[in-house]
User: What shape does this take?
Amino acid sequence: MDIVLVKNIDTGDTAWVLVAAALVMFMTPGLALFYGGMVRTKNVLGMLMQNFFSLGLITVLWVAVGYSLAFGGTNGFIGNFDFAWLQDVAGTNGGKIAGFAPPGLGTLTIPPMVFMAYQMMFAVITPALITGAIADRMRFSAWVWLLGLWAILVYSPVAHWVFAPSGWLFKRGALDFAGGTVVHVNAGIAALAVVLVLGKRKGWPKHPMPPHSLPLTLIGTGILWFGWFGFNAGSALGANGVAAQAFVNTTVAAATGMLGWLILEKLRSGHATTLGAASGAVAGLVAITPCAGFVGGMAPILIGGIAGGICYLAVSMKFRFGYDDSLDVIGVHLVGGLIGSLLLGLFADASINAAVTKEGVFSGGGWSLFGEQMIAVGATMVYSFVVTCLICLALKAFMPGGIRVTEDDEETGLDLTQHSEVAYATDLV
Assistant: This one.
């Protein structure tokens, strides 16, 4: 392995990435509230628990093997166990990391332990995104197994492909600044695989299942938007101009994503809703994620606005094709991630970030980068969908009781049947 000693630690870069890691961690509780407000009262704690549990299980798995599989070794498809249990990662000046040069930076200027912690927060929130698609009907014990297996068998390999310098997609020149492919496309297509195996909620789509607390959803949206500054600007891995550009792009795309969604919603339904505002903002945030440190000028406005409009249209596809994506993970995260990853092939600009070796079409770089982006999202979708299906089918076949709650338990709700609790005391009266 090509080991590089990291000696030139910059305290400003280190402080910023530590703060960014904390911001990304805060996104998981934000996601829990975002989703929790959209389910019925009998399933609120079930949703919150699925998200919070990711903070527990994935943290341990990442330290044990996940980080090493994602960033260790020189193989193009999967890492090794050189960094298992954080071996050779500790130390402020003598830590080791496998030949890593972050986007736009010549050398790593933060301790490898900080980089590990920052990437850990990405590993935590990515599978948590899937919970929105499976709301109201998966057994908690089945989720525990799915969460752990998916993190090791799907997330770590895809992160290695795209983020690690030895990854085959990284070497081809595919770009993903903060996780459009690794996080959103990966989790979104996995969500589709899970819901196809899991089946529809009882009564869907004939019976309405409205959100029980849109205020919670909007609070969650605010937390996600806030945390996304760490998600995107933190991915510069330094307190520099690239981080500043990513920060601005993030909030601009969120704003135009909201506007794009609401304009179409108003035109089609006659009303601009609070749920639409929240969903549109998240769609814009998802789409700008792969582009955040690689584009500038009008690009974030266009990317966010396009994503908001297209994701609004995409969420209705579940009714046409009959898959029960409870809280629109596929329509927002898969579609939004695809939009951002592909539009990067049009807008990538080397004047924004020197890591852009192949510029986008509109920057005079031709269609080469766009082709690499298509290969990256296509490979991720195929791998993630197939492996997730296999995991779910195996759990369905071999877990006592399968992966889905009984019809009676679904009618009662996950809060009581899976956790023996209720979210609101009035539910006991």
About this structure: The chain has one domain: 3-215+240-421. The longest strand covers residues 3-5. The two ends are 63 Å apart (CA to CA). Residues 368-398 form the longest helix (31 residues).
